[in-house]
Design a protein that fits this description.
- The chain is an all-beta fold and about 425 residues long.
- It has a single domain, classed as TolB, C-terminal domain (Neuraminidase, 6 Propeller).
- Helices cover about 5% and strands about 40% of the residues.
- It is built from one helix and 36 strands.
- It has one helix at about 10-20; strands spanning about 30-35, 45, 55, 60-65, 65, 75-80, 85-95, 110, 115-120, 130-135, 140-150, 165, 170-175, 185-190, 195-205, 210-215, 220, 225-230, 235, 240-245, 255-260, 265-270, 275, 280-285, 290, 295-300, 310-315, 330, 335-340, 350-355, 365-370, 380, 385-390, 395-400, 400, 410-414.
- It has a four-stranded antiparallel beta sheet with strand order 1-36-34-33, with no helix packed on it.
- The relative contact order is 0.14.
């Protein structure tokens, strides 16, 4: 059976552990290496959009939006080889003739038994997307099972990934439909006799001038079972929100808007999820806004009385240090933040960056890599975040570029 993901399930709780166990990455020069270039050959997948995860053996797992034997996308594994290099294996080819979903955009999560879970944007019984499970077989190979097919008007088009709690319940978002057509937060609960039941926990209503609309990312959970996420639109100023969902007695959930983004000066249009630090502060990115309108990294700090205070830690400057961060962040053990930008940088092809906390309370930015596919060797426009191994090396995806032009998996060594 495959090893468990080292950031399994409750991302909030485990991130606090993760922060304290991963080696610090250097703020000095870094070198990038392509581990895999995807190709359109009716075998490999292509256009990987969201992030990677590790198992305990150091193998990488992810999804591609297109490609594979049936053209509907893939789930893949990259395994380090003894003499160096990495070997790719396609674990599943999506084919909607089997009603198993099409076009997986988001990344994956492991449960404690080594099963993988993810979402597809389309396909399934009603063609509006699915939640799927991949289970490892004793003799090798993986078996896919659709746990839920989304159906209009209840909830459709899941963009973000899933979060799993200690009871094995899955949580996620859909970007559209629901009671007001602005997306939902949903829960999938395993039933005692087999199968899964879906419940919509919140219907977003971006037209009321308060609530958010169009969530494009997954969720995080705190130790009390509260869910936190972002919406790309809506809120008091229509530039998106950070929200909290709190479980109530009787099985209902209550939503609270923690911050409405205000555009220039403030961030706008957050398209990635959130992370916690060990003190309960939330961190994320916005794809636009900030001092230079090229996006921000922000922090939300809980205050007395249930309020939250936002602080912009960094505003991007396009060709200088990147633009349009659409992915989330990670911490290392020293409290440095890492992420990617989709554009900007030296070659206007995106960057991998580091933010380091300073003694005066500010943050110092450092570009670790400027993507450049002008010679067909590097990837470009990373839309996914980064992950760290135990040596401080960073791993990520680009949806384009590489040897064949269809995306890459890369490693950055500090």
């Amino acid at each position: 059976m495959r090893g468990k993901r080292f950031s399994i399930g409750l991302r909030v709780t485990v991130l606090a552990i993760f922060i304290g166990t991963v080696l610090t990455a250097s703020a000095f020069a870094a070198s990038e290496k392509l581990l895999h270039s995807f190709q359109s050959n009716f075998k490999d997948g292509f256009y990987p959009e969201d992030g990677l995860i590790f198992d305990d053996s150091g193998n990488l797992y992810g999804t591609t939006f297109y490609g594979g034997t049936d053209g509907g996308g893939t789930v893949f594994e990259l395994m380090p080889k003894a003499g160096g290099g990495w070997k790719e294996k396609v674990l599943h080819n999506f084919n909607d003739n089997r009603r198993d979903g099409l076009y997986p955009y988001a990344g994956l999560v492991f449960d404690s038994l080594g099963n993988l879970y993810g979402t597809t944007q389309s396909g399934g019984a009603y063609s509006y997307g699915t939640v799927f499970e991949l289970s490892p077989n004793a003799g090798g190979g993986w078996t896919e099972k659709v746990l839920h097919s989304f159906n209009y008007p209840n909830a459709v088009t899941p963009w973000g990934g899933l979060t799993i709690d200690f009871s094995g319940n899955l949580y996620g978002t859909t970007s559209a439909s629901g009671a007001y057509g602005a997306g939902t937060v949903f829960e999938l609960t395993p039933k005692p006799g087999g199968g899964w039941s879906e419940k919509v926990l919140h219907n977003f209503n971006g037209s009321n001038g308060k609530d958010g609309a169009s969530p494009l990312a997954g969720l995080v959970i705190d130790g009390s079972g509260n869910l936190y996420g972002t919406t790309d639109e809506g809120g008091a100023y229509v530039y998106g929100t950070v929200f909290e969902l709190t479980p109530k007695a009787g099985g209902e959930w209550k939503e609270k808007i923690l911050h409405s983004f205000g555009g220039k000066g403030d961030g706008s249009n957050p398209r990635a999820g959130l992370i916690f630090d060990g003190y309960g502060n939330l961190y994320g990115t916005t794809s636009g806004g900030g001092a230079n309108v090229y996006g921000t990294v922000f922090e939300l700090t809980p205050r007395a009385g249930g309020r939250w205070k936002e602080k912009i830690l960094h505003s991007f400057i396009d060709l200088d240090n990147g633009a349009q961060p659409v992915s989330g962040l990670i911490f290392d053990s020293s409290g440095n933040l890492y992420g990617t930008t989709q554009s900007g940088g030296t070659y206007d092809a995106g960057t991998a960056f580091q933010l380091t906390p300073k003694a005066d309370g500010g943050w110092a930015g450092n570009v670790l890599h400027n993507f450049n596919d002008s010679f067909g060797k590097d990837g470009y426009s990373p839309a996914a975040g980064l992950i760290l191994d135990s040596f401080g090396n960073l791993y990520g995806l680009t949806p384009s570029g590489g040897i064949y032009g269809y995306g890459t998996v890369f490693e950055i060594k500090p």
